[in-house]
Write a structure and sequence with these properties.
single chain, alpha+beta, 5 helices
Length: about 160
């Protein structure tokens, strides 16, 4: 089973946080031929809080008579896991407002890769982006983050 290396970015419902949490999911096949997926959740507290996980399927072939096992399935599973981690974080940190914040499913919306460019250029969550680059083994995501790290940052001043 050979997964095409790819990554996606999703913006999550803010759930009372100052900024919007975002989730990066990536999938690829490791050198041993096993499909892998990673998720990275950045929660906008202080300079950003990062949660991450890698999932590996210890099969090189998947019986597909009942299901098509592809990048899409693996990316969606990684996204679901990241959403559950975000909800658990809210439950653990938002105390009495957590039940109200979590009374509905957490909405996520896909966004394009320019979101990471904007975050980097404005100097937001740069430490998280650097940590994601160091932790990931997804070649397409790593290449994109290496490119972003070469971009200039905006300088701001009073008008």
């Amino acid at each position: 089973m050979d997964f095409r290396p790819t990554f996606r970015i999703h913006l999550a419902q803010p759930h009372g946080l100052v900024d919007t949490p975002f989730i990066i999911t990536t999938t690829y096949t490791d050198p041993a031929g096993h499909p892998n997926a990673e998720w990275f959740l950045v929660i906008p507290e202080d300079k950003g809080m990062l949660f991450a996980q890698r999932n590996k399927l210890d099969l090189q072939a998947f019986p597909d008579e009942h299901l098509i096992f592809d990048e899409e399935l693996f990316l969606n599973e990684a996204l679901d896991q990241a959403i559950l981690r975000l909800r658990r974080h809210i439950l653990e940190t938002k105390e009495s407002s957590a039940p109200w914040l979590l009374s509905a499913p957490t909405a996520v919306q896909p966004c394009d890769h320019s979101h990471l460019v904007q975050l980097w250029m404005r100097g937001t969550y740069c430490g998280c982006l650097s940590e994601i680059r160091a932790k990931s083994k997804g070649p397409e995501l790593i290449d994109f983050l290496v490119w972003i790290h070469g971009l200039p940052m905006l300088s701001a001043g009073d008008a």
